[in-house]
Amino acid sequence: MPPKSSSGKEKDIAEEDEVLQAVILADSFNKRFKPLTVGKPRCLLPICNATLLDWTFESLALAGVQEIFVICRSYADQVKAAIRDSKWSKPSTGIKIVPIVTAKETFSPGDAMRDIYTHQIITSDFVLVTGDLVSNVRIDEVVRLHKERRRTNKDAIMTMVVKEAGAAHRTRSRGVSGVYVLDPNTSECLHYEPVLGYPPASHVTVPREILAEHPEVEIRNDFIDCSIDVCSVEVPSLFQDNFDYGDIRRDFVYGVLTSDLLMKNVYCYVAKDGYAARVADTRSYDAVSKDILSRWTFPLVPDDNHPGGHSYEHLRGNKYIPKDNSVSLSRTCKIGNNTLIGPHTTVSENASIHASVIGQRCTIGPGATLHDAYIFDDTEVGAGCVVEGSIIGSRVKLGKGVRVPRGCLIADGVVIGEGARLRKFERISKKRVAPTKSEDDGSDGDDEEDEDSELEEVEEHQEDAPRVLGNNSNALVWPRGSPEDDEDELDDREHYNNLRLMRIGDDASDLELSDAGSTTSSDTETDSEFSSMHALSRTSSMTSASMSLSTADPSARTSAIHTLSSAAAETEFRSEVAQSLERAFAEGHSVENAAVELKTLRMASNVPLRRVREAVVGAIVDRVPLVVGDAAAQRNEIAKTVRRWGPLIDKIGGVDPVETVEVLQYHCAAAGPRQGLFAQMLVALYQQDLVDEDDIRAWHQSPAAKGEGVKHNAALVEGLKKCWDVGAKLLEQLGEDSEEESEEESEEEEAPKAKAQAKAAAKEESESEEESEDGSDGSEESAPSKPAPTQHSAPAPSTSSKPTKAEPESESEEESESEESDTPPAKPTSQPAQPSVPPKTAPAPAAAPMSAPAPSSAAAAATQSATTSVPVGAPSAPASQAKVAKAESSEESSEGSEEGSEEGESGEEEGGP
Amino acid sequence: MGPELHTIHGHRAVETLAAKLRRRQVVGSREAALETVLVLRQVVSRARFSNIQQLIAIIREVGRRLAEAQPKEHTVGNTVRRVLHNIREEANSATKAPSATTSRNVYTISKFVLQGQPRKQTASVPKSEAIATLREDDPDDPDSFARGLKPVLMEAIQDVLDELETVYENVSKNAKDHIHSDEIILTIGHSKTVEAFLKSAAHYRNYTVIVAETGPSYSGHDMARSLSNAGISTFLVPDSSIFAIMSRVNKVILGAHAILANGGLVAVAGSLLAATAAQAHSTPVVVCAGQFKLTPLWNLYHDYGALDFADPSSVLGFEEGKLVERVDVVNPYYDYVGPELVDVFITNDGDHPPSSVYRLIKETYDDDDHEL
């Protein structure tokens, strides 16, 4: 022990030398708090009677941060003044706070980061937070871990702090969240996928390599993103290099993790102790207020360490009353639980206040009822008012009997006349005084201009204002519903329906969401490069057939999340590829050059490998001149073309013959006149060793090959069927061949293929024996496919009892009904093959069935290879962290997986042995 | 009112400690007391004053600031009071020792009630003669008073520090007189004082300790581990079985967070349960605590807010989203145990019944310091 502790001390000393820096992004870059933020920045809104900025400072001070840069954009002067006047600017706090005003053109956190880069203020690892953070997490601990990691791995550029929470947690944002794929041992974040609340996402795509390279991964959708990031110095420069990075999560983290070029690592710190959340919207304003009042943020609670410097007394039921006796509470008023009342406030008789926060110097009239209300300073609530689930700014006057139902936001200085009845989710701000107030300082000018134009717009919609607001009101009613005009410009996070999920008091029950207890089926969908993760919502779990249609329809196969952008990109990509191949064919490029060109194209437009394959196969098929009536000549043409260009198929970045056949099938089936070419093409490919018998068999076995899932296109189905029949015939022929041939011959035949995997040859021999046995059985049960040359991308196919189906390389859409009907349950014949696969080399991705609370059943299902279903909407805790088990499972568990995969579909998981 | 804090030398250290106390980076009664003494020593050593009132005003200002920063750590205020008391005493004996001793000789019961028992002052008489030349408010050399007095004051503060540092040994020095062979002792929580006390008794006696696990912090687990490592036969029981096993227990030993002036105490949550169960079985309840925990405060009304409430996460995980929304969780840190439930306090200054705690407090602190 002694040496350890001494080295620990040395480390401490070494770290003390460096000043711990923090950067606060004080601007929110969105308008979710409008109109409360008319005339002041969001970080100066009070929560529990202290400004958000103060809470952020306190959170950082707790971590021992010594130098803080506050990046402000709108109302920078107010922010600066607030910092100057606060206790934080006193030298005794030991914290140096430097406000930095960025240009008005800063529209995203990414822009702010680029600004930081140009200022060159960052000297070492720093903490990046937003200006609306409430946290008691030991950030210094995170920084220590980060630095330790940096010592061994220079590419660990960032550590994100996340907090575990259930899916239906009040503090977890419903609108904007993310799915994290973590390595549970190193807590490296392997993949990040942003998720929107609306439209509800049902898929995340996890790159195949992640599942291949990591024997164990956790896929988590139950994290609160605390937006505390410990970043290395190079993070701002990465933003500088990638000028299109806007958001830190959606763009930066996603970009870094999916980039083939950057090779940087991002880690997660799952905060076990402590609390951290940001006030990103009005709904989280409500949630964080409640968390503070119910002391989750301890010791950052009003009676202990109030960032605003007030001192409150904590009474039974989490009521907080100022200690200085400045509050006048009438004898008959009722103060309910979880309530904070600010200093110098008067509560009149018979008023009842419940789960609310009242600011300083407020007056609550007789008989007023406040429920979940947040009232800022100096506001008067008239007699008999009813306020529910709303935020009311400062210096507001509510006349007698005003009703403020849930979801209303009332900006500073508004006066609402007697008896007014607001509608739900009303947003109200004060009318501008005729001449806009003289500009005290130039820099505010732009803000005001922005705001003026906004207010002008609001003013246009005042038809129903007098009716709503009552007499003697000075207020404007903001338009309701979605603003139609600028819908397109908006980031989809700021889309109206998504914003609704982040609105105070809005339960959004009329929106169709996958949230709240969605179930999942263990549908398998594999892709050449991506295994798509399905999480079917409860409503759609019975429609898995229609979901799996996406296999047939390439355009629908795009990841659900980036549908729009990637669809556009793909169209463009397709035409680019077509042109490129056209050039290559015409000018007789070498295969290598053409492949390089294709790779570049793929990189540029970021499309899955399958798209490229489709394009190449399609181009080759179209390249073959049609020779009508002369089968031999036709065969020659095809052979010529395939000989010349066939190798290109395998050079585009990955080898996947099964997919090649399938792509060929779909292309021929769709191409009408060239449908007849399928058989000859297939033979040509076979002769060129581009595909071998097993691949054809695997393809033949896959449901996609039978045209399942393609329901809407009868012609296509027809074509597919024909091609499938052709394939069957070919297989038959091949089967006969192999029957006739002696064993040695079959070995010889294998030989060329075995080149790539020479050491596996012996095993293969035995496998091929079984294979031919199986084949001769003539049953649907196919042979265990032999390990493909690209071992890494074929995780443990043969451990599964349904090897071919589940084989990740095959473009197979697993569908239980069909499978159960045409596949007998695990045949013992396939099991002896299992030991031949070294368990360690074959990590199997997991299924995370929603309906599997018992870890054992989850583990059993997890052995089902290459199929991963991740609940996006609402994972219950155990399911969401379903660990991906290794494929080293025993035979029993492979049986268990069989069970898991079949019963998981029908919704009742019985669990593995 | 006294001087403003920022005019006091060493106020940086005061603010740092205040911030640490507020952020709960300094927790535990002894640690808080130690930190306070260190800060006070720094303040006194750098203070500029020309009479004793100025110095006292400075210390009171510092003390008020610290005590306000964390009113739940009572030992901070106690330490300040103790230091003030010692300083006054030293200053008195230094400046007007002869007159003071004569006037104090008049000893009446009414005076005792008002002022507390006079301390023995014979020891300081020779010292006072040595520096009897000290003059307050010397117009020629305003610092001369401070210069002359400071060594004595530092010594007085050092006394407080020494007392804090030796408190465990002193409390446990009589342990063998309280614990007899083959007794069964019940304790709760992980009080360092109780731990030292039990370990010290284990050198002489062979006895059994039952430790309640003390949810939701489960500090009892550490206690049980530590005791059994010391070779004491130890049982760990859930809190819920305290009453059931009380009939077999010979003695309940509790630690304290603060001892209040009425003889009650603030102790780790669960102590009230143990003490009440002990009363029902007429089992003696012994409280082990250092003298620095004596607090001139009353909790006659069982003031709810006097207890400290921690975050609910140890009771209900934050990840239980749906419950968090609907359930109010209360996680009190301390219990208030009334004086009627306690039989004896074992301190580093001897053993006392609850009824004489008020006297100890009068002796230890000056009356005018009760409100800092």
UniProtKB/TrEMBL annotation, chain A:
Q: Which Gene Ontology cellular component terms are annotated?
A: cytosol; eukaryotic translation initiation factor 2B complex
User: What superkingdom heads the lineage?
Assistant: Eukaryota
| Residue ranges of domain W2 in the record | 567-744
Q: What does the UniProt entry say about where the protein is found? A: Cytoplasm, Cytosol
Which molecular function GO terms apply here?
guanyl-nucleotide exchange factor activity; transferase activity; translation initiation factor activity; translation initiation factor binding
Q: Name one Pfam family in it.
A: W2
UniProt biased composition (Low complexity) = 518-552, 793-803, 843-872
Name the major location.
cytoplasm
Q: How does it assemble?
A: Component of the translation initiation factor 2B (eIF2B) complex which is a heterodecamer of two sets of five different subunits: alpha, beta, gamma, delta and epsilon. Subunits alpha, beta and delta comprise a regulatory subcomplex and subunits epsilon and gamma comprise a catalytic subcomplex. Within the complex, the hexameric regulatory complex resides at the center, with the two heterodimeric catalytic subcomplexes bound on opposite sides.
Q: What is this protein called?
A: Translation initiation factor eIF2B subunit epsilon
From TrEMBL, chain B:
| Record InterPro entries | eIF2B_beta_subunit, IF-2B-related, IF_2B-like_C, NagB/RpiA_transferase-like
Q: Which residues form a coiled coil?
A: none
**Molecular function in Gene Ontology:** guanyl-nucleotide exchange factor activity; translation initiation factor activity
- Which key words tag this protein in UniProt? Cytoplasm, Initiation factor, Protein biosynthesis
Any single GO CC term annotated in Swiss-Prot or TrEMBL for this entry: eukaryotic translation initiation factor 2B complex
Q: What is its main location?
A: cytoplasm
- UniProt protein name: Translation initiation factor eIF2B subunit beta
